[in-house]
Amino acid sequence: IPTLPELRPGPRRLPVVFDFPVTERTTIEIDAPPGFEPDRAPLAVRQGTIYGTYSLAVTRTEQGFRVERELKLPKPVVPPESYTGLVGFLDLVRRGDATVLPFVRKAEGR
Questions:
Q1: DSSP character for 34?
Q2: H/E stretch holding 24
Q3: Which phi and psi (to 5°) does residue 21 adopt?
């Protein structure tokens, strides 16, 4: 998963300028470690704001989890008066990206 820009909270005098609009789509298959199996999948995350959209969907599979993530930042320039909202949106994305995938020990005989 690509790294997000580190933006510090607080006032800003100049706009944030991204090189270009961003659309990232990532799908990852994660296998359970030996001796473990996937537990219940975490709830999906979907957020849409004026700064962009973010979604994270985790599906339980036979072997582990399938993680589907999408991030869109359609506006390459965010004015200073919108900076606080952008920081909040990117923090939400970071929290979603840090979602823990739960695995449990396999029961004896499985």
A1: T
A2: strand 22-31
A3: -60, 150
Q: State the CB neighbour count (10 A cutoff) for residue 62.
A: 8
The per-residue pLDDT for 38 is 97
**CA 11, CA 32: separation in Å to the nearest integer?**
44
Distance CA 95, CA 93 (A): 5
Task: At 40, list the tokens.
Answer: 């219940």
The 3-state DSSP composition of the chain as helix, strand, coil percent (nearest 5) reads 15, 40, 45
Token representation of residue 78 = 């965010």
Helix runs in 1-110, H state only: 83-97
User: Maximum Cα–Cα distance for the chain, whole Å?
Assistant: 63
Cα(37)–Cα(21) distance, rounded to whole angstroms? 39
Query: How far is the C-alpha of 24 from the C-alpha of 69, rounded, in Å?
Result: 8
The half-sphere exposure of 13 on its side-chain side, counting CA atoms within 13 A, is: 0
pLDDT digits (tens, 9 = 90+) for 25-84: 999 999 999 999 999 999 999 999 999 999 999 999 999 999 999 999 998 899 999 999
Residue type at 108? E
